[in-house]
Please model this.
Amino acid sequence: MAAAGVQPDAVSYNTALLACQRAGEWDSVLELFERVRRAGGKGAPNAFSFNAALAACAATSRAAEAVALLGEMREAGAP
Model:
């Protein structure tokens, strides 16, 4: 998308996160979530993005990272 000059939005990122989740690619979910964080603007993380990252943390036993994400989610005002 970026090569074509199109910036992904939250829907694009969340669709990719869901595809990674369904494939059980938990590390890919977390890597993509990092990209979502850096994107900001239209691609900024929302409740769906955070939930995907939290599910990845749970699936890979990353409790400390999940707790940090919950704090970040609250700060961002995501429901």
Summary: The mean pLDDT is 90. Helices lie at 10-22, 26-39, 47-59, 63-76. The CA atoms of residues 14 and 40 lie 14 Å apart.
